[in-house]
């Protein structure tokens, strides 16, 4: 499975990066490929390429504030979570995604 995502929080500092790291770690623990873009106080980092977006099975977007360039994900399976959920419940999110994708 290939997971991509974007994390962003209102202040654009610690929680943005904590959420990205937690999602990547939880996905990789399941043997998934994962790349999470961050949109923080210093702008977009680890930006997703068109090829990475095309290859993704699922996209996780945080919903605390608007994601920049969200139109890139049109037509993809998108799951929205809060930045706090991503940071604190990433293994549970990945398990739910795994179940959702298995039923598709």
UniProtKB/TrEMBL annotation:
Q: What are this entry's molecular-function GO terms? A: kinase activity; protein-N(PI)-phosphohistidine-fructose phosphotransferase system transporter activity; protein-phosphocysteine-sugar phosphotransferase activity
- SUPFAM superfamilies in alphabetical order: PTS system IIB component-like
What Enzyme Commission number(s) apply to this enzyme?
A: 2.7.1.202
Domain of life, per the record?
Bacteria
UniProt keyword annotations, A-Z: Kinase, Phosphoprotein, Phosphotransferase system, Sugar transport, Transferase, Transport
Recorded hits in InterPro entries, A to Z, give: Bacterial_PTS_Sugar_Transport, PTS_EIIB-like_sf, PTS_EIIB_2, PTS_EIIB_2/3, PTS_IIB_fruc
Coding gene?
A: manP_1
Instruction: Give me the Gene Ontology terms describing cellular component.
Output: plasma membrane
Domain PTS EIIB type-2, by residue range, is 1-99
Q: Does the keyword S-adenosyl-L-methionine apply?
A: no
Question: What is catalyzed by this enzyme?
Answer: D-fructose(out) + N(pros)-phospho-L-histidyl-[protein] = D-fructose 1-phosphate(in) + L-histidyl-[protein]
User: What's this protein's name?
Assistant: protein-N(pi)-phosphohistidine--D-fructose phosphotransferase
> Which Gene Ontology terms describe the biological processes this protein takes part in?
phosphoenolpyruvate-dependent sugar phosphotransferase system
Provide the organism lineage as a comma list: Bacteria, Pseudomonadati, Pseudomonadota, Gammaproteobacteria, Vibrionales
